[in-house]
């Protein structure tokens, strides 16, 4: 075991010390004396959340294949250790070497959700690294970030030295090659940021200036360096079958959120749900070879000892070889006692057959995500699912022995009326009645229907980026209205907090001015804001007041067609014209077919691969 950074006294005084000691099964160890580049890869949340993230495992494995680079992991210390580190002025450290982060070449954050942003500032502070990019010196690491939230980097632009837009496997090797050569030639980190301007997909905020109109909207976004590109193109791997996969993912000592191995079926999505940012920015769909996946599955189980494998993607049913792969894995892994899970599966005959095989003993709950209560609103959001689909799926599930159904919806979707809200309660009741259509002798268990609602947050690079978000009072009125309409006899209703959704709304479509709010929120003590027990809205209200930023400017304001958005300088290859066409089709409740049924000319065909060229 490597030396530990924390003493036994400290480890024994905190909850779950295994979060901080590293040395897990399959952890990569390297001799630092033979390393040119030290890279700390950070998931800005607690260990159990970060270790469940597939992207972290992929990048950890991919970059550690380089002999000259050592990638180590960092997570947000839980509040108990956070307190101790501050009291003792003890710097935060990486798990593998247990060395303080300040001595690394790079500290890279993955940006998965907006409510983790104060954790990023907290990690910098705990590492004794200045928060603002302009205040850092040659003695500090280069701070970088990527992931889905990096597609609007502006709220963090003052804190991050550079952002990487796209899939890491495509260009990070090139970036590290350039850094190594630059470092060996005696170049400074400040000079390296200039060199990054030559790499497609890299955005260095200090080389861009933003000016604003009197009404607060952006007037111009202009490069201030001759080599800075006016557009930053996302990087994408066209042939995903050429990518290595982590053959030996790390096996934690403690239970994590997803305690299993993960098989990635494909990247991208064909569906075109108009609220979904991932469905737009990860386009086009690119499938992995089924024979490779079969071999990978067996390798993952053999190298980890896990008893569950999860087949993941944005919409698993759209994998063209899903039946072949699933039935093969059921046959191969059944004797080893390995369970197969298929999240994000649409409920149809095949799905129920698969689930009846893998969940034969403990018929767990079935999950539908209609998102909206009426067909009109499901057409507005281009969900591609009908009420008949949901009712038939429920009926088939009840006949197959399930008695527990979960339904997920969003409140506050564009054009939503109280009739749409009431439709959520009606759909739930229709499913209840479907259950009671079965003969009494088949209704052997008590029916459980669970309806959960969240609040809609408009996201960049979606057709709904022009729409206003409901204000807090409207959100709560709709939630209260729905609560009164739901028949509680057979239906349980869970609802989310509207305040965090409002803050997400600000940060998701925020500009550089929002960085002041993040800083003030951090100074007020905000961290772990996605954890309800640590979320304190009053501190955020104070932060907005101190930063002199109006929350409604970013949330409840409708945008003009030609407004310059803070993220417009990033090119995802999905054109803004396509997104606006989808915006107008939403207003007309017109459905757009998925990519396999017809091309909607989103702009991605120029990439020359993926689902655009199937068949």
TrEMBL record:
Entries under SMART domains matching the protein? Elp3
Which domain of life does this protein belong to? Bacteria
Protein name from the UniProt record? Radical SAM family uncharacterized protein
* GO terms of molecular function: catalytic activity; iron-sulfur cluster binding
Q: Show the PROSITE patterns listed in the entry.
A: RADICAL_SAM
Give the residue spans that cross the bilayer. Answer: none
Q: Which InterPro entries match?
A: CHP03960_rSAM (IPR023862), Elp3/MiaA/NifB-like_rSAM (IPR006638), Radical_SAM_N2 (IPR045784), rSAM (IPR007197), rSAM_horseshoe (IPR023404), rSAM_sf (IPR058240)
Stretches assigned to the Radical SAM core domain: 255-485
SUPFAM superfamilies associated with the record = Radical SAM enzymes
Which Pfam families does the annotation name?
Radical_SAM, Radical_SAM_N2
Naturally occurring in which organism (per UniProt)? Natranaerovirga hydrolytica
